[in-house]
């Protein structure tokens, strides 16, 4: 079976290439007048590469994880140099100010990855991470304040299988918040998770996926709820939410990707990876002997076997993000 350590050199190479690639760039910026036409690097001195802001953030996260957990498998000095170039107090201060000035920018997906990056830096065993801890604190502060305010004012979750998915972002926020000791953030995310999803029943998983998903709304919700329900309550909740898991009538087969280098259809390649990751995580949340465990594990393996060969295509629009989810699908730690 393929392991993270085996893939670490390749994934580090991809991430470093992404950080060094400024264009093409999918810039999401609200222009206020004819003169408001800055370059991506001017707007985002830390996260201006890797095709888009959120992918740049989680490529930084991936490099922090790799240099922390597998320093002997990667070019640690090259990774540290790349991170030193971007994770500076001045650059991250600009990023924090931008988020505060544009409070819907990258909400919630990019926010969640920014908080995970802060957690990865804070908990890194690599001695170089000490240089980045204080620098990233203002960004984490901004994300926490924006997230708590957003959740306070939000009436309903977003259930699509793309970046706006609420359950996925809350999962990342909870893990990052717990790792960082940000209790207010965790409490706000947990309260909304329970309010929005606790009473969900009979989810029609057979309706998934839609044509541009890279997340399963059902599995993202189930993965969130394992974080906020007790170990005694969770198995019953999952049975009510996805009652077909052990009856064989809930499809858990990998998705065929006919046009992987299309920017949107290529999301389905990521869907196979995120499903593999989440299915594996769900299996560990169930008690030993639960009949759903082997079903979930077998489905995770099928998705992983299908997805891994396509993680590296040589096409930047395709390769700028998948390595992060491949790392997680292979069992790499989130925090």
From TrEMBL:
Identify the domain of life: Bacteria
Which InterPro entries would you find in this protein's record? DUF2891
Q: What is the official name of this protein in its record?
A: DUF2891 domain-containing protein
| Organism for this UniProt entry | Kribbella alba
Lineage at the top is:
Bacteria, Bacillati, Actinomycetota, Actinomycetes, Propionibacteriales
């Amino acid at each position: 079976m393929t392991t993270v350590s085996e893939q670490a050199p390749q994934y580090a190479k991809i991430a470093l290439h992404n950080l060094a690639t400024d264009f093409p760039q999918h810039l999401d910026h609200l222009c206020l007048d004819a003169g408001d036409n800055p370059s991506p690097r001017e707007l985002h001195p830390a996260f201006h590469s890797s095709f888009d802001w959120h992918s740049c953030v989680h490529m930084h996260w991936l490099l922090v994880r790799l240099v922390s957990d597998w320093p002997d498998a990667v070019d640690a000095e090259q990774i540290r140099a790349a991170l030193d170039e971007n994770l500076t107090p001045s650059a991250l201060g600009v990023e924090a100010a931008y988020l505060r000035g544009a409070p819907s920018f990258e909400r919630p997906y990019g926010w969640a990855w920014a908080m995970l990056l802060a957690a990865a830096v804070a908990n890194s065993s690599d001695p170089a991470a000490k240089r980045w801890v204080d620098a990233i604190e203002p960004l984490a502060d901004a994300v926490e304040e924006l997230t708590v305010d957003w959740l306070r004012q939000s009436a309903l979750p977003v259930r699509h299988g793309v970046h706006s998915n609420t359950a996925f972002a809350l999962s990342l926020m909870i893990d990052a918040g717990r790792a960082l000791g940000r209790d207010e953030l965790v409490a706000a995310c947990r309260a909304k998770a329970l309010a929005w999803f606790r009473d969900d029943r009979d989810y029609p998983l057979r309706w998934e996926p839609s044509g541009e998903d890279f997340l399963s709304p059902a599995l993202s919700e189930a993965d969130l709820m394992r974080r906020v329900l007790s170990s005694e309550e969770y198995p019953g909740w999952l049975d009510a939410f996805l009652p077909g898991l052990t009856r064989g009538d809930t499809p858990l087969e990998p998705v065929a990707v006919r046009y992987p280098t299309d920017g949107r259809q290529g999301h389905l390649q990521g869907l196979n990876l995120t499903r593999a990751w989440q299915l594996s995580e769900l299996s560990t949340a169930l008690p030993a002997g639960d009949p759903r465990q082997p079903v979930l594990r077998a489905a995770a393996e099928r998705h992983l076997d299908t997805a891994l060969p396509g993680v590296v295509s040589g096409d930047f629009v395709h390769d700028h993000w998948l390595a992060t989810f491949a790392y997680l699908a292979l069992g790499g730690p989130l925090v």
